[in-house]
Amino acid sequence: MTTAPIVLFVYNRPIYTQRTVESLKQNEIAGESQLYIYSDGPKNESDQQQVEQVREYVKTITGFKKVWIIEHEKNWGLSRSIISGISEIINQFGRVIVMEDDLLSSPYFLRFMNEALNYYEKEENVISISGYFFPINDCNIPETFFLRWADCWGWATWKRGWDLFEADGKKILDIIQSENLEAAFNMDDSYPYTQMLRDQINHKNDSWGIRWYASSFIKKRLTLCTNMSLIHNFGCNQSGSHFLNETTALDSKLRQIPVKISPIPIVEDHYSKQQVFQFYERTYKHDNHKSFFKKKFVALNHLSLSNKSKMINKIFNLPHHILHYIYIKLKKQILPPLYGWSGNYPSWEAALHDSKGYDSPDIFTKLKTASLKVKSGEAVYERDSVLFDKIEYSWPLLAGLMWIASQKENT
User: Fold this and answer.
1) What is the pTM of this model?
2) Pick from 354, 368, 370: nearest CA to 182
3) In sequence order, what are the residues at sequence separation of 6 or more whose Cβ sits closer than 8 angstroms to the Cβ of residue 8?
4) Tens of pLDDT along 178-228?
5) What is the residue-wise DSSP string for 339-377?
């Protein structure tokens, strides 16, 4: 088997780099693979010593067919270093396996990457191969499947795939917004990928990964995944570039058996996609608690002021200026400024088409689960699927009922 070159990007974490390399060396075909290491220069004097330690270590690496080291004298930054390095190697070899300095790999990672690169080389709709998968324990997810997604933790692609990479985040965001794709890009609004892209545009992060996913998404390309992760990221803490707080939510156990690549339809696997959505909902529910309200506002938000007021007035028999005032107040309380929508919808029906409603199976499931808990005595009552352990009386409502009863001979 012709092996693809491995590109490893390192900076100032010598222990992390060593763990990553030692893990790679345990791969079956490490000895048949060429390893290209890109070492970025220090940002400041305080990073100088650790950068030097990393460079001293990588010069001692063995166990691969050939080790090449490319050192940047100055600091290029994460995105520039990775984008440039991938482009350089892929233009030379036509394919590449990409690693960063905080990724442990399964002994079968390199074999899966290379076999999949060979198998899907001619499939234009397949943009990449992902080594990482979320810690979702579901036996119904197939061994290999496709998602409209592109990951950046241990992955591989071809030149035809990387040629689709768009470095201009603003250009990608304009396409996503003009085609009303924000909810889909955000994985059914389960994770704020659009906000990540906006932050990159506004220089609040230096993420090349969000632009890689977005580039793949707007081209409707697919990534091959496996149901058990071949990559474990042990750098989800403050030592990395994009993690401000330590988290174990994305920790996946490494697969310890080979992946069997067999013919499957080259279409997105909807069941697996839903499991990913639900994983995001569970994992980031503290970040996305406003998404439920967001979905209720989204259709109205696309309408003009006059049409919005008319629609609210149809639903509630109150003066439309009062209801619009309530709507604006609620929107400001529920949705922070970083959230919003755009789209040129000609009618309520068109806006509603892109919105979920009370016919959503998710709502039915939540209500059913909550109701059964009330029935079994696990909760006192439920309201809109929210469970309560004590009765909360509405005193204004009770007062109104008592007043009416007093006028009707206490009936």
Assistant:
1) 0.70
2) 354
3) 20, 21, 24, 35, 36, 37, 38, 99, 100, 101
4) 999 998 999 988 888 999 999 999 999 999 999 999 999 999 999 999 999
5) -------SSHHHHHHTS--TT-HHHHHHHHHHHHHHHTT
